[in-house]
Amino acid sequence: MEDRSAKYRAFYAQLISAAARAADPRIEEAFRTVGRERFAGPGPWSISVGGHPYVVTPDDDPAFLYQNTLLALDSARGLNIGMPGAHAYWLSGCAVKEGETVIQIGAGSGYYTAILAHLVGPGGRVHAYEIDERLAGLARENLKDIAHTDVRDRSGIASDLPKADVIYVCAGAAQPATEWLDALLRGGRLVFPLAPEGMIGGMLMITRPDEGAVWPAKFLGRAQFIGCAGLQNADAARRLAEAFARGWEGVQSLRREGAPDETCWFAGEGWWLSTAPAPVATAPIKPNADITQA
């Protein structure tokens, strides 16, 4: 069984890396190395291509796990291990490096925590937050052999977050939490779905500059996640839907002060996104509108 699983993982890793256009070979290596079985739980499993009903696998053959599909953790609540090709693309975009410290918000059963741990290596650290106690318990058990990870069964919106090079959020929000922005080190990247619950939004990457209130920002593509508790807002959701309908590819910066001007794409309380560039731009990456589901 292990030999078959390794064969499946090798093909799967190639497939999703191609779907994600991932230039970093470590992305493919991470998906080839980390097995999905322990994070999926016992089969049969419920899988889905985003936006379509779940289909139950005929049995527990691990071949069913190694596809570019959603994998249900709780199908009644729509909780999934997210689409691998989408996550590979977003992880490639934020360029997680060896030795970095990562905060993951919304760990689920820990699959992408393990992927992140592989990317940072034993010299790095991954702090995973999961508000659902049952899932946090599963993640803690699944990750117990990876010494440079820890799982915290509480909200990831907190003033005592550790400082981090990358904050990778797996829950949709109507705004970036101030606590996330404050926890970023200089040059750090926040990647989160600006996507209130029930809405297709966009995976936004914000980079903390050395100084100043104008931060480079860009959408890595469209995204839809289960909502992040504490960061939902009906009015913002309505206005965001209108903003995305007008186009989203032109966003270039997050402004944390000053009144919104004619370059404003969307304004929240104390922050706004602008189509004008920040003083220091980020490396170019072409947004992928076809990758949406997590």
TrEMBL record:
The keyword Transferase applies. Pfam families: PCMT. It comes from Bradyrhizobium canariense. GO terms for molecular function: protein-L-isoaspartate (D-aspartate) O-methyltransferase activity. GO terms for biological process: methylation. GO terms for cellular component: cytoplasm. It comes from the Bacteria. Belongs to the methyltransferase superfamily. L-isoaspartyl/D-aspartyl protein methyltransferase family. Its EC number is 2.1.1.77. It is found in: Cytoplasm. This is Protein-L-isoaspartate O-methyltransferase. PANTHER family: PROTEIN-L-ISOASPARTATE O-METHYLTRANSFERASE, PROTEIN-L-ISOASPARTATE(D-ASPARTATE) O-METHYLTRANSFERASE. Its main location: cytoplasm. Keywords: Cytoplasm, Methyltransferase, S-adenosyl-L-methionine, Transferase.
